[in-house]
Fold each of these.
Amino acid sequence: MRRTGRGIGMSLIAEIVKPEAARPATDAPVLTGLAAGILVATADGQLPVEFLQAGDRVVTRAGMRVLRGIRMTRYSGAAIRVSAHALGPDHPERDMILPEAAQVLVRDWRAQAMFGQDQAMVAVGWLVDDEFIRNTEVADLQVFELSFDAPQVIYANGMEFGCGEITPDLYTAPPAPETLAEQGL
């Protein structure tokens, strides 16, 4: 899902709403985890994601939850660089690099503008503005995917991230194509 240009333009919208049959087939897994170095809120304080282990207690929007598993994958290719404060004061608290599909909970004007919702779980790649949130390339990024008994929203680097299979109660789907046409996009 490589994007160019400024913000969410027509090419991005067309790619997002393109029918599945028109998308190139790929067997590559979609990485939605957190990169090494990102600090996760736990019962023991802020810990780098790579220090977490099954059994650790992680702070989530639903309260403290036990981490059931963690999987590390090495990745090279397109990624997203998010500058400190790009999504508001201390959101994130510091610069970070994420896989394009990392699920971020936005609860500001972006959720309203993009989805007509007060909050929305979106792939960070949707938020590229080419100034504070930019496309980049990585040669060797360690990505950690956290698993819980049920999907959770965790706190990391001052942001909220989705973990687990994203379900309708955690994710707001993109606007329908007819909605985009009505908006002149």
Amino acid sequence: MTTLRDETTRTGARPVPASTGTAATRVLGGVTLLALGVLLYLAFVASPAAGPSQGFDAVRFMYVHVPSAWLAYLSFAVCALCSALYLWRRTRSRFWDLLAGASAEVGTLFIALTLVTGSIWGRITWGVYWTWDARLTTTAVLFVMFLGYLAVRRVALDVEVRSRRAAVVGIIAFLNVPIVHNSVQWWRTLHQEPTVLRTDLSPQIEGLMLYTLLFGVLTFTLLYAWLVVHRFRVAWLEDRLEAAGLGRAIAERRAEAGLDEDPAVEGVPAPAGPAPDPSGPAGRTTPEVTAP
């Protein structure tokens, strides 16, 4: 099996790392793991239970459910911003396209976690896992829209065409985020109104519960950063592998056709000097003929 390192070595392209990890990402991962441990203790041991309206101990789902939703919003905002930067000619770069895709994948994971924890919490407090509530419905639509975005990124098209189409879909899908957030205020809904991000700037929880929730948001932000960095690097390696494979395929097709190798193909050496004369002795070349 040919690896990316083997491919780039054979073609002469710049070497690429064999791992997506660095000293910085290992430190970030360690801090994130430690923060997750502290969050679990605060959420399930130290933090007090809520009242009967919030299901007593079921409120502990809030410390995972709410940070997941907030980080999904952040992920999709980053995706939309990077997509816009990719569409703008002055800033168009594969960096923005790959970062948009990485952030969208992590955001889709967070929104899925939001739906799962919300359904379990709803079963305890509402008596059902799912109802076509405005908040739940718009969140499910957001999840499906970004699944569609990820599907567009896998369509077999020219890279630039595919990236432009995905960028447009990413920006359109992000427009659903403010609808999801404001759905509990625009329509009658079973879902409670915002607990912290309220228009009157008066959180409905305080003390250790508020501290634990905010610490959960910080922890999930660290987790988001760690996941995006690694997913971006994997996407970059995949992009390099695809480019190296394309260059090799073009060189092989030209060799089969008996043509000179194309010097424009990355990693493929261009022929040096005039072509040798097959009818003459070895090392003799055909002199260039010019018009009188």
Amino acid sequence: MKSTVYKSITKKVLAIAVYALVVLTANVNAQSAYRIKTGVLTETTSKLTKYEVNEQDAAQFRKALTDYVTASLSSKENIMAEAFYEQDKNNVLWLIERWNGKKQLENFSKKAAAKALQSLTEKLKTAPKTYYVKDLEPLTKEQWRKTSKKEDNQLVIMLFVDAKKGTEQNFKDTYHIAMPQFRSEPGVVTYQLSEIEGDETQFVTYEKFRSNNAFQYHLHFPPIKPVIEYLETSIKKPPFQNGIHNLIEFAPLTRE
């Protein structure tokens, strides 16, 4: 009798153990699939492209870039897209874009607006300069789509930083501390630090302010002091101001 009961219990325990193993395996596989899926979805492709065009072709190029930005923003795979010209060099144009992945960007390159821009690009005497970047302290799509207000006098600055080798981690650590405070400033719309792919000593900041007054406030904001100190002592070719680009947005010009 005892032997029969023992065998029955053993079979039940074994059945439960097998069932538990099946459930556990299924959960692990599901979690792995989820990680793979979300990993692909969150693999942002960030790209900056600089165009130097002839003055007589600038208007046509701006139109093509505007169409490209408009089409990009209508794609669910796009995170952000903006086009600018440099304040002091109107023939220097910038396209800044972020996508959910390289495949999504490649798919968009087959669209009419992308082909039209590529057609114009092929006629340039100077090939465009392209930077792929890795965002540090990355923003969400909603944060990237945040815009200035209609009454703002928007100011956009892009700063390229070429750090001395061996100091790049110090630069990232300094920004890591300061970034939340910068983004909390009332006059800041967008603030992003990115590392240029292919060279861990090169960085670029993207800073969008509501006005020049907001920018001046930022320059005197106490948390910026360690950043300025780094820029004044630890870059390859000072002064750091040489890496500043003042940008004027012409697409999409969306405002609150």
